């Protein structure tokens, strides 16, 4: 039975052993078809071979459906149920019935389509807290994924470069149609230089066990909010090169998808939350090349649609426009920027973190909190309270040294960095000032303040934050704080956090 006939047959309610909705909806891609029956969804794979994806035989389709079930049950057990045979008996196609096996299908619990992140976004119902929650979910997912010597091998620079170079080769024919030759050359030159000059970054990622069995296709269409929790689904099962990747490969897909939809504030929240909960700020050293890669792949997919003679003029125009936008985004990620450092300073409860998070979204900055750095060094979960040893003088020194080190390496990659800590000692402020001067980097110190009784009230009422600071520490902090000297004052902007601080921030030239 050919695929078009099979798809037609599976729209017949008699093919199912349970009651189905009046009209079975079919969602098709280039490689699969999904049948929405009401309570359950069924997915078949089309008998196609695209090189990077091969479902051309019955055995391969069965294998990859089982692979998809196993991989996705681990992260979305509410959705993925079982693989069943599709049988033919007396000219009737049945799922899980008797007769000749003609294909296989993946059975899933069907969730409402408005639960998808992409549909929540389109409906204007995707909120900032959803992106924070997603960052936490993805960080936990990556923490539990596997790695080994075989998987780490996919982090070799030759493997990564080969895959990216193939994208350029496949899209060269679309120059003048969906992108300019100048844009094509500059995008390719960026990745060529990246792999030539920054090989040590990729080695470090392997050594740090950041090459793992990831998702591979982590965009808004593959995330849903169902049963009161965020669920990732539809991991890449058909190609090892697409799922045995750097965790930043996954992160880049989500960031790029949000950027492409002109919600850089959303992508910033997701990225900063992920980095805070994983402590993987060094992953930013390879993020730009993966961001460009993900946008370029979306451009390539849309370009390939242009080769289909069966699509309408309207569909052709839409695909061409989307390809152009993604090519431009891929190029945009390659453009180097001059990073800046913003140093938050002030007592606990002074509003540093509130302002830092707000500012990060405004300037697309990387926010690094000393509270998170400290707990990562101490190897305790961010949501747990640390003991006295975590706040010893030795740990304070390690925390500030690490915080400043991370800020320096990240700002050198062109990111704007917001370092969020009390920064109440000359020693640490002067260290950052020297780094900024040596590297000709813009530096602003944002000193946040409010009356002591307000700080005390804020700390007493604080909930759901990773900081362990309490109101009884305020007097000691105030006694130990060292006033800004004349040299430091030239960098300082003072913010009264009790009085319209958003307007004050707007007055500062970033």
Automatic annotation (TrEMBL):
It comes from the Bacteria. Pfam families: AAA_33. InterPro entries: Cell-binding_unc_protein, Kinase-like_dom_sf, P-loop_NTPase. PANTHER family: GLUCONOKINASE, SLR0207 PROTEIN. This is Gluconokinase. It comes from Crocosphaera chwakensis CCY0110.
